[in-house]
Every structure is written in C-alpha cells, then in structure tokens.
C-alpha cells in the first residue's frame, strides 16, 4: 500500500480524527515555547494530518497553514478545526512562493513517511525554499540506532526488537534506511537516520542546526534518542547546495 492509500483508509482516518483532538505532546510544547516565538510569524505545518499541531499554533495566534497529501485527511482537519486554514499539497512540491514562511514544521515523524530517500530530501529542499531568510525548520525523525539498542531488562522491548530483526532480515531491509516497523495500525516501511547523518543532510542544504528537542524528558544522549526534533535555521544570506547526501 502506498502512503496516499494508507492515509485514505477508513481506519486510519478514524485514528487521525481522534488524534486531531489530542493537542501537542510535551516535547512539542517545549519546541514551540523555545523556538516558535514570533507571534507575527507565519507557519507552515507539513503533514498536518487532522490538525493536531496546526490548531494549537492557531490558538497561539500564529498565521498558520496546514498541508497534507491526503484530501480525506484535510477534510477531517477542516471539520475538526473550521477556523484554521488547511490545504491539500505535497511536501516535495509545495505551491507556495519562495520565502513565504517564518517557520516550517513537519511533526510526528511525517518526513520519514516520504519515500524514496530522494523525495524525502526534496521535502527538506522545499522547506528551505519556502522559508524566509532567518526562518526555522523543525521536524522529528526516527533514529536508526534506536532500532537496535534495547534495554535488556524490558522483555516487551526485547521481543519487539527480535520481531523487527526477523522481519527485516527476511525482507532484506535490515540495513536499509527504510525498514519495516510495527505500529498500532500494522506494519509499515519507514525511514530512519542516525543524528550525525541527519545533521549533515541539513548542513549540505545550507541550514544551520540551532538546537534539538528530545523526544522525552529523560537523560538519554542525543545519539540514542529514538525520535528527536531537529531545529535548523535558514541563514539570512545563503544559497542551497544541491550536492546533498541521502
């Protein structure tokens, strides 16, 4: 099943409709409180789903637009949050002019659902393009190391890792950035990258990494955080480098 078919499925739409009312996660509140601070700033919420992050941004007074590739998901978002602007759109080919936004967010590891790797890189380049000079790009991404590092005292985690290893050994995807991962709604192939490589992707484009927000309030080093937020700034004077890594 491709990504658009997945997001159009009835059970997935129902799940996201419920999620759309849930609001920000604790680390996302930290992200907004520390980095998305200009009340006059314009925000693009990519992969907005049913508006879980878009609506709180609007409540904080931002001029925000939510974009999702699924027309059905956008309809759900509009029904849940009728006072917020939502559009159907592709993160790899945005319809906005250059320099349209002060902030671009891609929450809930949505960037890792973009396939193949060249398209995921295209989404980063498009985020660069639509940002104003000095604007911020923030997104969370799966840490490839967390697929293999497990607490040996946690039997459930050990069992999950064993199933992951067996599943991807059979599929030949164990060392791939795109591996088959089990989620609440089933098994899906999704991207993961180690933090140093993700930082390199951003600097290859021309971004300056200005901070990271951990996925949970714990003491794990960034290298082992399963899904950190990366916060990168587009310099006020810079040009994108097309020689990027995947």
The outline comes out as globular
Strand tally is 9
Radius of gyration: 18 Å
For the record, the CATH class of the largest domain is Alpha Beta
Distance between the termini: 23 Å
Structural class: alpha/beta
CATH architecture descriptor of the largest domain: 3-Layer(aba) Sandwich
Give the proportion of residues in helices.
25-40%
Strand content: 15-25%
Number of domains: 2
Question: Can you give the mean pLDDT?
Answer: 89
Largest sheet geometry: 7 strands, mixed
Q: What is the CATH T-level topology of the largest domain?
A: Rossmann fold
CATH superfamily of the largest domain: Vaccinia Virus protein VP39
Count of discrete alpha- or pi-helical segments spanning 4 or more residues: 8
């Amino acid at each position: 099943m491709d990504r658009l078919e997945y997001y159009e499925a009835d059970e997935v739409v129902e799940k996201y409709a419920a999620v759309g009312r849930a609001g920000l996660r604790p680390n996302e509140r930290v992200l907004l409180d520390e980095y998305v601070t200009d009340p006059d700033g314009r925000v693009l919420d990519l992969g907005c789903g049913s508006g879980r992050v878009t609506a709180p941004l609007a409540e904080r007074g931002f001029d925000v637009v939510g974009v999702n590739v699924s027309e059905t998901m956008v309809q759900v978002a509009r029904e849940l949050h009728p006072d917020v602007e939502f559009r159907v759109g592709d993160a790899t080919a945005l319809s906005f002019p250059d320099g349209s936004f002060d902030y671009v967010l891609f929450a809930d590891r949505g960037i890792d659902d973009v396939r193949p790797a060249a398209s995921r890189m295209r989404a980063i380049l498009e985020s660069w393009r639509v940002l104003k000079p000095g604007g911020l790009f923030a997104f969370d991404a799966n840490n490839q190391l967390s697929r293999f590092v497990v607490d040996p005292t946690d039997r459930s985690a050990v069992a999950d890792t064993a199933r992951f290893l067996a599943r991807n050994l059979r599929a030949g995807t164990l060392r791939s950035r795109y591996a088959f991962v089990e989620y609440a709604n089933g098994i899906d192939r999704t991207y993961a990258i180690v933090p140093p490589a993700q930082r390199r992707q951003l600097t290859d484009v021309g971004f300056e990494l200005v901070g990271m927000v951990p996925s949970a309030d714990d003491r794990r080093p960034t290298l082992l955080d399963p899904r950190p937020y990366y916060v990168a700034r587009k310099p006020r004077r810079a040009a994108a480098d097309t020689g990027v890594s995947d």
